[in-house]
């Protein structure tokens, strides 16, 4: 089937052109700069001057846990069916131009009582089954999260699940890394659970007592990842030494480093560096750690992830241009498209170019902020917002 999207501001890897984009059988075939749909074109969509960007690729988002009630203000008391949570998360992704989504699935059996091995398995099975049945709007994978002080047995087995593409190794030991401030660790766990002070003290003591196991656990998980061909991501790196240690273990991605020296060293070693979009939208880290703009300023940022807020990809990229941190929109869009694609080793998507898969998002800024009007997966229209009428051309 032939599809043409005309009257669009097409965001290419190195420039923006006005014109039409042609697709056939789910692939981009032609970019018609300064022209409309060719004679005899099949389906034609008028973009009305909107931006046309590559579909966003989300390296790390745990919003599905909020959708099923595992996290949030009523966590555990109003648990929703996993299938409904997946469908809602899928819709949220499509509505914000995310065409490839990695769900950050975690379990802390003895910590956040609402994350468990059973729940993580249910989510992974639901993704597998719904994808196989063609019931999802966008492409879904799993970024399996492993806490280094936990027993690795379940993780080593779960890594073989067919929807797992990446393993993120986290160290949330109280008093270290992201939680160098012990009180911030306790405060977060009060939000996630109904634990009282005595329970929190017990939790802190147990995790600190297992800290000596971290090095051995990391080596086991890294070896299993290599065996399965999974991407290894380190999480919350807090020093250059930590980045070097993960690089030596085969780490390819540094997720949300908490110190600038860690981001710079990871990038210098050739690792990809991703940071959370909410950090950008809020103007800084919720935990007082590295500001995304600091990493960007020294050239140590390759990708933006949603973390828990799907709008953060599109909105974050446009904000970087609006606030003057990046002069050109095409450079900002790389952080949510070709950058994440490279980190995942995906060569069939992440940019608008002939031969690549037609994963696209049509974005309007006429409301004063980005809104996704249409999302396409492999050339298929999977989401459409019809609230708009023809209005003057966008301005970034």
Automatic annotation (TrEMBL):
Keywords: Hydrolase, Plasmid. It comes from Roseovarius indicus. Its EC number is 3.6.1.63. InterPro entries: Metal-dep_hydrolase_composite (IPR011059), Metal_Hydrolase (IPR032466), Metallo-dep_Hydrolase (IPR051781), PhnM (IPR012696). One of its GO terms (molecular function) is hydrolase activity, acting on carbon-nitrogen (but not peptide) bonds. The keyword Repressor does not apply. GO terms for biological process: organic phosphonate catabolic process. This is Alpha-D-ribose 1-methylphosphonate 5-triphosphate diphosphatase. The keyword Hydrolase applies.
């Amino acid at each position: 089937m032939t599809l043409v999207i005309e009257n669009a501001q097409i965001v290419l890897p190195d420039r923006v052109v006005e014109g039409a984009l042609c697709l056939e059988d789910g692939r981009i075939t032609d970019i018609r700069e300064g022209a409309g749909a060719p004679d005899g074109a099949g389906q034609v969509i008028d973009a009305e001057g909107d931006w046309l960007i590559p579909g966003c690729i989300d390296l790390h988002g745990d919003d599905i846990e909020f959708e099923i009630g595992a996290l949030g203000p009523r966590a555990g008391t109003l648990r929703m069916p996993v299938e409904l949570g997946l469908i809602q998360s899928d819709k949220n992704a499509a509505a914000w131009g995310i065409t490839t989504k990695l769900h950050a699935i975690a379990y802390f059996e003895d910590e956040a009582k609402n994350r468990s091995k059973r729940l993580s398995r249910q989510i992974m099975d639901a993704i597998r089954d719904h994808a196989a049945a063609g019931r999802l709007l966008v492409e879904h994978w799993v970024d399996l999260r492993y806490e280094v002080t936990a027993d690795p047995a379940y993780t080593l087995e779960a890594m073989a699940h067919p929807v797992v593409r990446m393993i993120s190794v986290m160290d949330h030991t109280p008093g270290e890394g992201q939680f160098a401030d012990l009180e911030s660790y306790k405060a977060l766990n009060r939000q996630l659970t109904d634990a009282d002070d005595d329970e929190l003290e017990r939790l802190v003591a147990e995790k600190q007592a297992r800290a000596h196991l971290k090095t051995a656990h990391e080596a086991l998980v890294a070896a299993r990842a290599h065996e399965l061909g999974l991407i290894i991501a380190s999480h919350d790196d807090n020093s250059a030494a930590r980045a070097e240690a993960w690089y030596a273990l085969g780490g390819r991605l540094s997720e949300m480093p908490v110190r600038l020296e860690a981001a710079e060293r990871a990038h210098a070693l050739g690792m990809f560096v991703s940071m959370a979009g909410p950090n950008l939208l809020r103007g800084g880290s919720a935990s007082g750690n590295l500001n995304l703009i600091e990493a960007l300023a020294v050239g140590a940022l390759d990708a933006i992830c949603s973390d828990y807020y799907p709008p953060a990809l599109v909105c974050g990229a446009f904000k970087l241009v609006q606030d003057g941190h990046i002069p050109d929109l095409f450079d900002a869009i790389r952080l949510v498209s070709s950058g994440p694609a490279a980190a995942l080793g995906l060569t069939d998507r992440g940019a608008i170019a002939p031969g690549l898969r037609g994963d696209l998002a049509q974005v309007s800024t006429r409301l004063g902020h980005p809104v996704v009007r249409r999302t396409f997966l492999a050339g298929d229209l999977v989401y459409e917002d019809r609230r708009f009428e023809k209005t003057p051309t966008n301005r970034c």
